[in-house]
Design a protein that fits this description.
disordered C terminus; alpha/beta; Rossmann fold; globular; 6-stranded parallel sheet; 2 domains; 24% strand
Length: 357
């Protein structure tokens, strides 16, 4: 018996949109029936590479005409809720969208309440976990070779809304999805508040998980450099530390471990050509079978986003913040009111050179 082919609409024909659209197009389980962008030239260029699907600068009109099963949203985060609402109203089965999932905890709650009521599946782009080097560290942790895990330390020179959402998601994955009980954080620098992913220039904080594991996160200009890696987006490290050793992954530089079995290491790097196909294939599996939940599902992304926003609230409130978070004002707007003008002291000359303006 042949499996169904799912119709897809992709909105946003930039770099990430094309990563998604070309991978959907290459997978026989999907048909790209429509693409959308406000730039007509981008649309025509993309259409030629995707079998000439329907094109439009109006997402609502395109949804009405194509009636897709899957809506893929790769635009900037400031229009998340409005686009997701359009897709839900159009009756899609699955929404795949870029991180961060929202710009505030209130918006994230709105999104989740909307898709839960409608029974729509959601997937958030934390696809680095499909990298062979990320998978290897997961395998080492799951094997018990580290003994009792007590600390997971993650850092990246990219700023909060670009990179913390990735780091926290993978930290939770390595910690078997344990719930976070409280966080405490501090931040500095106002330069990135005007970015399209608004963030403090630097944030560092602690996460206490219910199983006793302590998470430590640093993101932004003050975070440690990863000199083994050549480009800021890939300058991320996650280290899982246990009573019998450690294992760590570098987004752009492989993996290494020291366990009771000895020292070991291997290659691997962020590579969309390798990571996107299984990420997309798992969407087909979940559409086929409700029990085959996508590893990057929206419920998990929501928990990671809540931890990130709790860290921002901790900066504002100057102390520990318990989870789950109660309702409150937009976290980044409140942060902008309290962050001082004081510049960030960068960790290394490499950070100073690599940190984008």
């Amino acid at each position: 018996m042949s499996k169904p082919v799912y119709k897809v609409v992709v909105v946003g024909m930039g770099k990430r949109g094309m990563h998604h659209a070309t991978t959907f197009h290459a997978n026989p389980r999907f048909e790209v029936v429509g693409i959308c962008d406000i730039d007509e030239a981008k649309l025509q260029s993309a259409a030629a590479q995707l079998g000439n699907p329907m094109t439009s600068t109006d997402a609502a009109d395109l949804l009405a005409k194509t009636k897709p099963d899957v809506f893929c949203l790769t635009t900037m985060p400031n229009i998340r809720y409005s686009m997701i609402r359009l897709a839900v109203e159009a009756g899609v089965k699955l929404i795949a969208y870029e991180k961060p999932m929202a710009l505030s905890m209130a918006e994230a709650r709105q999104i989740m309440e909307l898709v839960r009521r409608a029974g729509v599946k959601t997937v958030v782009s934390h696809q680095h976990r499909y990298g062979a080097h990320y998978q290897k560290v997961k395998e080492i942790v799951a094997s018990g070779a580290l003994g009792r895990v007590h600390t997971i330390y993650a850092h990246a020179t990219g700023w909060l809304l670009h990179m913390a959402t990735h780091l926290i998601d993978y930290m939770r994955w390595y910690n078997d999805g344990a719930e976070a009980e409280w966080v405490m954080a501090q931040a500095s620098g106002r330069g990135k508040l005007s970015d399209n992913h608004p963030s403090p220039d630097y944030l560092a904080g602690f996460i206490h998980f219910a199983n006793g594991v302590r998470g430590v996160v640093e993101v932004g200009a003050g975070a440690p450099d990863v000199p083994e890696v050549d480009y800021w987006w890939r300058k991320a490290r996650i280290s899982v530390q246990g009573t019998d050793g450690f294992a760590e992954v570098l987004t752009g530089g492989g993996w290494r471990a020291l366990t009771r079995d000895g020292a070991m290491q291997g290659t691997g790097t962020m590579d969309y050509a390798l990571d996107m196909p299984p990420y997309i294939e798992d969407m087909a599996r979940w559409l086929d079978d409700d029990n085959a939940v996508h590893p990057c599902n929206g419920e998990d992304a929501y928990k990671g986003f809540e931890i990130m926003m709790a860290m921002v609230r901790s900066v504002v409130e100057r102390g520990q913040v318990a989870l789950p978070l109660p309702d409150g004002p937009p976290e980044l707007e409140e942060l902008a009111k309290v962050l001082p003008e004081k510049p960030v002291l960068l960790s290394t000359p490499e950070n100073r050179k690599e940190y984008p303006a």
